[in-house]
Specification:
single chain, alpha/beta, Rossmann fold, 5-stranded parallel β-sheet, 36% helix, lyase
Amino acid sequence: MKKPVYVLNGPNLNRLGLREPDIYGHTTLAEVEALCRQAAGEEGLVFRQTNSEQEMIEWIHEAIDSSSALLINPAAFTFYSMAMMDALKMYPGPMIEFHISNVHKREPMYHNSLVSPVATAVMAGCGARGYPHAVRLLREMVAEGY
């Protein structure tokens, strides 16, 4: 059996569709999950969201052992969680850091990611529609032995 792609979402993403729609759009997290599941195909998908840093780190540890690839939207954890960064350093497969908005067009506090140096790739500014593209890209990377 092939290992699934993990999609992990950080704080406040459970409010997608309601939270600052001018920045994050109107797509809900449930709709994002459906798009990702379709993109994952038969390899499968584990899709989660948490507002807890501890829970995110535990899920990263689980992904280290159980996934083929990791798509992570760490949200606010991106900019301050060294503990999460340390967990991500252990991830052995392809990993995409994902942001719905273009963090580089936003206030300076959003410009210094602790995740980018340990991620395989970074996607930002594609909106919620970027999630399934990232999942497909990760599947291709796994298939290519990346």
